[in-house]
Amino acid sequence: MNLALDTNILIEIDRLNKKIIEKLESLRKEEQLDPTLPALVVLEYYYGFLDSRKKESALKNINKYTILNTSKGSSLLSAEIKHKLERAGQIIPDIDIIIAAICIDNNAILVTSDKQFEKIKELNKIILDV
């Protein structure tokens, strides 16, 4: 099992948020879990730096992590999660549904500060306050 970092957590690492960095280090050591990035986190994170001077730095940060990619399983799971949420009247962005499905498909724990992931019951998650 791995820790899958959400975009908001990756940004907090960039900001040198000591609380977040210490929590991640504690999880990594105690649980023997390596941090990874779902492929769509790479998209969101890198996109945010395309018009800045920090583009190369963002690319170096991304390259520190193993990437969890989409698969047929995560694609099917994304559709099922979206359908279930819509039927319950709970809408969250498609990109977050796909991030969750990638984590479920890869047996990873999503580390995020986004409380909307609480709506996806089958997702293993750690929601941190930043």
Topology record:
Blueprint: E1 2-5, H1 7-14, H2 18-31, E2 35-38, H3 39-47, H4 55-62, E3 66-68, H5 72-87, H6 94-105, E4 108-112, E5 125-127
Parallel strand pairs: 1-2, 1-4, 2-3, 4-5
List keywords for this structure.
Rossmann fold, five-stranded parallel beta sheet, 130 residues
Task: Give an overview in words.
- A 5-stranded parallel sheet has the order 3-2-1-4-5.
- The protein has 6 helices and 5 strands, in the order βααβααβααββ.
- The longest helix has 16 residues, at 72-87.
- With 130 residues, the protein is α/β, with parallel strands linked by helices.
- It starts with a strand and ends with a strand.
- Helix content is 52%, strand content 15%.
- It is globular.
Give, in spatial order, the strands making up the sheet with the most strands.
3-2-1-4-5
- Secondary-structure-based class equals alpha/beta
How many distinct beta strands? Answer: 5
Rg (CA only):
14 Å
**Assembly level:** single chain
User: In what range is the share of β-strand residues?
Assistant: 5-15%
In whole angstroms, how far apart are the ends? Answer: 24 Å
CATH architecture: 3-Layer(aba) Sandwich
Identify the CATH homologous superfamily. 5'-nuclease
| Largest sheet properties | 5 strands, parallel
CATH overall fold name: Rossmann fold
